[in-house]
Amino acid sequence: MAAPKKSRLLCILEYMSLETDEEHPVTIAEITAYLKCAGFDCGWKSVKHDLEQLMDSGIDIICNKGRENQYFVGDRQFELVELKMLVDAVQASRFVSHKRSKALIGKLTAFTSRHQADQLNRYLHIDKQPKTTNESVFYIADVLHAAIGSNKKVAFKYYEYDRNKKKVYKHNRQLYSFSPYGLVWNNDCYYVIGYSDNHNKVIKFRVDRIGSPEVKNEQAVPPPKDFDISSYTKNIFGMFDNAPLCDVTLRCENALMKSVIDRFGEDVETKVSDTEHFCAYVCISASNNFFGWVVGFGGKMEITAPQEVRNGYISLIRSVADKAR
Asked: Cβ distance 72 to 21 under 8 Å?
C-alpha cells in the first residue's frame, strides 16, 4: 500500500469535518478503519491521542461518553441555519448568475458535514426568477472596490437592451469616467454609486451592466460635503431615479404605514391627519418612477405638497389615461 501523502492528524480532521455532526458521531473504531483504508497503520491508543491533540489545539471535537465513546465536530465557522440563510440569499440575488449560484452553494456545503450538506442541496432550486447572464459581475465588483480603496477613477462602458433583447452599449460605446464611492445591494440588484464626469453629478449604475471596467491613473472626484450614501440610497434608489431631490408630503390611509416604513425606514417623519389618514414627510427624487409607486396604491396615497410635484403627478396620470383611450 502506498504511503499516505497527508499527516494522520490532518486526515482525522478532514474525516471528522466531512462525516460528523451532532446527529452523526463516530467511534474510534470507525476512525481507525477509515485511517487504515487511507494507508495508516495505527491502533486505538494512537487515534485517541490524536483526537486529544486536536482538542488541545482548539478544534471543537465533542465526546459523547458511553460504553463506546462517540465523537463529532461541534462548533463550526457557520451554523446550519446560517448556511441555509446564505444559500437563500445567493439564490435570491439577481446579480448572481444561475451558474455562479450553483458554484457558490457548492462551496458553502464545504462548511458543514456531508449529512447536513444534503439539506443545503435540497435548497438548491434555482427557479424562474430573473438573474443576470453576466458571469463577470464578481470581477467587475472587485475592480470597483480596488478603485474605491485607491481613491481612483474607473472607466467603463454601459449597456442596455434593444427591442430584440440584444445588449447594446449606450451612446455608441461611450466610455464613462466615474469616481466610485460605494457598492449597494438594493432591490435584488447590485449598484455602484459615485460621481460621473459624463453627467456632472452623483449617479448610480447597475454593476451587472458595466462592461470592461479599468482603474484609471487619475484621482477620484471627492464626494460632495453633504453626501451620505445611506441617505442617497433611501431617497434615490429603485423607484426614485435621478430627478432633483425635494421635500414631499404624502397623505396616506392608515393601512399604508407599513409600506411607507418599508420604503423610507422607521425614522420617517409622520403625523396623524385624521382618524383614517396620516401624513408622511419625505425627501425624494420626484421622478415618474416615484409617481408610479404612488399610483400603485390605487388612490390610498395622495401627494399634497409641493404644488409643482402634485401638478407633475396629475399631468402624468392624465397623459397615461389619454394614451389608454
From this structure: yes
* Residue 161: per-residue pLDDT: 80
The pLDDT assigned to 160 comes to 87
Cell of 244: 432633483
Burial state string for 93-118 with b = 16 or more CB within 10 A and e = fewer than 16: bbbbbeebbeebbeebbebbbeebbe
Q: Which of 179, 192, 115 is nearest to 151 (CA)?
A: 179
Helix/strand/coil for 99: helix
Which residue, 171, 166, 226, is CA-closest to 202? 226
Cβ proximity of 191 and 95 under 8 Å: no
| 53/42 Cα distance (integer angstroms) | 16
21 CB burial (10 A radius; 0-12, 13-18, 19+): buried
Alpha-helical segments (H) within the chain: 8-19, 28-37, 44-56, 80-92, 98-108, 114-122, 137-150, 229-236, 257-264, 288-295, 307-324
| Domains within the chain, CATH numbers bracketed | 8-73 (1.10.10.10), 80-122 (no CATH), 147-223 (no CATH), 239-324 (3.30.70)
Tell me the β-bridge partners of 184.
Answer: 191
Q: For the chain, which residues score pLDDT lower than 70?
A: 1-5, 121-135, 187-188, 234-243
* Residue keyed to cell 491533540: 53
pLDDT for 162: 78
pLDDT at residue 210 in the model: 94
154 with 193: CB under 8 angstroms?
Answer: no
The sheet with strand 26-27 has its strands ordered as 26-27, 70-73, 61-64
- pLDDT in the model for residue 283: 87
